[in-house]
Amino acid sequence: MLTTSFAIYRQYNGFGIFHVAAILSAATLLAGMLPVWRKRLVYNWLQLHYSFMYLSVLELYVALVDEVLVRP
């Protein structure tokens, strides 16, 4: 979903606010996966994982509300 979001250009005729949101969502998703991959190197890896995954889910809810409000 994140990679295909960059192929949408009709709404803004270029790079728009939804592309910024996709970059932010990809960053929080990656930040949530990194502590799991490096759990021996990070002290509180489980708490970091849960925190970033929670932020990622919140971003999904915001995207859902945005789609409901923007699209007729």
Q: What secondary-structure arrangement, pairings included, does this model have?
A:
Elements: H1 17-37, H2 45-70
Helix pairs in contact: 1-2
Notes on the protein architecture:
The chain is mainly alpha-helical and 72 residues long. The protein has one domain. It has two helices and no strands. It has helices spanning 17-37, 45-70. α1 (17-37) packs antiparallel against α2 (45-70). The longest helix is centred in the C-terminal third of the chain and has 26 residues, at 45-70. The protein starts with 16 loop residues before the first helix and ends with a helix. The model has no long low-confidence stretch (mean pLDDT 82).
Query: Which overall shape is indicated by the principal axes computed on the Cα atoms?
Result: elongated
Count of DSSP H/I helices:
2
Number of strands: 0
Tell me the number of structural domains: 1
**Pattern of helices and strands:** HH
Summarize model confidence as the mean pLDDT.
82
The main pleated sheet reads as: none
